[in-house]
Amino acid sequence: MNNRYWRDEALGTPRELALSGGRLRVFEAGAGEPLVFVHGALVNANLWRKVVPLLARDFRCVTLDLPLGAHELPMPAADLTAPGLADLIAEAVTALDLPAPTLVANDTGGALAQIALARHPKLAARLVLTSCDAYDMFPPRFFKVVLAPTRLPALARVLFAPLRLRPVRSTPLAFGWLMRSRLDERAGDSYVLPILTDKAIGADFARVTPDTKYTFDAIAQLRTQDRPTLLAWSRDDRFFPQSLARRLAADIPGARLEWIDDAYTFSMEDQPARLAELIAGFVGETTVA
């Protein structure tokens, strides 16, 4: 079965937003205070499929399906630089008319969330960063090498072709160092097949250009903002070390650092109940103006 564009029903009801750069798919589940989930590169909304149903009992969960290489709707007219993607997140939140949402982000999406809040300080009332890019790790050095071929979509399709084989996806060159648990085959298909089989998706991802200038600028702005922030960090992360979490905690005013054990970067895959518990507790215990 081809699961190239499969999305888990647990994410809720799909919806398309007509934004300035094109159509963006989002998923909505539950009711209550809004949570907006932001994924990173070469994954999609499915990353949050285990967390959303745990939180949708008490919150309105909105999961974005961003043009980061595993998406379904091409956005050839969109600005997919780091600031452009940050503005895309902000435009989506505005289009959804979400009152004072909590932004929850992972991996590349964490850097984009930081940049979005630096550029749009009133975008979110709270911020939750799971293990993610920051400072000079945008992306980490390992991924600068691994993802370099994606600048040429045709070369990317050749070099990433082995990922069509599901067992290869558990190796360190794919998801093996990003998660300790076994990747669901359907989710894995939805992560790797779009860039391998859809030239428009590959062309989109080739225009995604991380630049540490923007992450450093973002932290400089976040230092001046007063916003409840939770760092829900994987203690055993192989790419985003504990020192990075502690640095963020020191730089972001009032940030709370909580560790997630037995998890790599994708704590939402490895320890979804623990992550959901931290998010729910954080939102319940913090007040916003």
CATH evolutionary superfamily? Alpha/Beta hydrolase fold, catalytic domain
- What percent strand? 15-25%
Global shape: globular
Largest β sheet strand count, sense and barrel closure: 8 strands, mixed
Q: Which structural class best describes the helix and strand composition?
A: alpha/beta
Tally of separate helices: 11
Helix content: 25-40%
Which series of helices and strands comes N to C? EEEHEHEHEHHHHHEHEHH
* Arithmetic mean pLDDT: 94
Q: List unreliable stretches of 5+ residues.
A: none
- Name the CATH architecture: 3-Layer(aba) Sandwich
What's the CATH class, please? Answer: Alpha Beta
Write the CATH fold name.
Rossmann fold
Give the N-terminus to C-terminus distance in angstroms: 49 Å
Query: How is the largest sheet built, in terms of strand order?
Result: 1-2-4-3-5-6-7-8
CA radius of gyration is 17 Å
- Count of β-strands: 8
Number of domains: 1
List the helices and strands and how they pair.
Layout: E1 13-19, E2 22-29, E3 33-38, H1 52-55, E4 59-65, H2 82-95, E5 102-107, H3 108-119, E6 126-132, H4 141-146, H5 153-159, H6 185-197, H7 199-206, H8 212-222, E7 229-234, H9 242-251, E8 256-260, H10 267-270, H11 272-285
Parallel strand pairs: 3-4, 3-5, 5-6, 6-7, 7-8
Antiparallel strand pairs: 1-2, 2-4
Helix pairs in contact: 2-3, 3-8, 5-7, 6-7
